[in-house]
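Database export, one record per block. Field names are fixed; values are copied verbatim from the stored entry.
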Amino acid sequence: RRVFFHDGPPDSVLIMCIHLQVLNLHGNQVAKLYEVDKLTVLAHLRSLTLHGNPVELLKGYRSYIVGQIPQLKSLDYSTITKQDRSTAAVMKSFTRHKRPVRRHYNE
């Protein structure tokens, strides 16, 4: 049950692959963290490889991925540790409680 994509998986493919356990997106030019959000539909995903993508250079990358896809056991060929999960939980709770800035307009 391994699938390799060179241009990233289309959304329609992901919906059909809900039992996918290993996904290798090495070198697919994934650049934004939110692009990974569509992988949350893969409830059985255990191993994800995004190595070689611009997104891996972003601050908080590993924590974001672990927070979004908590069932992962491995990310970029590296086992997800308790510390990774703890950091992801803190990061996720911080962003969850962030309130939008309210603007006051003088009329």
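Remark 1: The beta strands are 2-4, 22-24, 47-49, 74-75, 78-79.
Remark 2: The chain has a mean pLDDT of 82.
End of record.
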